[in-house]
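Please check this protein record:
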Amino acid sequence: MKTLFRFQRPRLVAAAKGLTDFDIVDIKLRDDLPEWFPSINPFRKVPAIEFPDGEAIYESIIISDLLDELYPAKQLHPKDPKEKAKQKLFLERCGETLIPSFYKHGLADKSEETKQELLKNIGNVEQYLTEKKSKYFGGDEAGMLDYMIWPWFERLPTMYTLSADTYPNLTDWFNRMQHEPAVKETLISKENHLKFYHGYKTGQVDYDFI
């Protein structure tokens, strides 16, 4: 039995691949971090996964990729190496632009400037999906890139409502993803996201909400 210290991306991957041989452990960060957890991840962050031999791996994308390789029955990455590399490049781009703009506008500065920065980055995602000409970022079925990006779009309704006129393909994708079994299994409600954000800003974070 492996131990997965909870975070949404690896949980989405585990759910999408039908993996059940995990103990899910919630770790409360900041002041409530258990004394033993730095032995799992010296950077004191989740997610992390510990194997029966005591070896631990951390960082959400690395864990997600590892799970896809360890359990190849249902591959979430594209089989084509070039397409896999292209998706990884786009995900890295999102990590440098889209995701920081979510945090900046959602947790720090709800100004018009940060809103426009966020919308610009969402527009880049819309363009990428439009060029793919497919239902999902991974093709006709949800794949690794879809699950890696989803958590931030799950949080989007707390700060902005996607317009089908402006983001037609992304809106369709968002609606389809809501019906994916893995998304349903790991979904965090808009209300709980808002409660978490409020606690984060006031310094009284309740990680039970996420």
Summary: The chain has a mean pLDDT of 86. The longest strand covers residues 2-5.
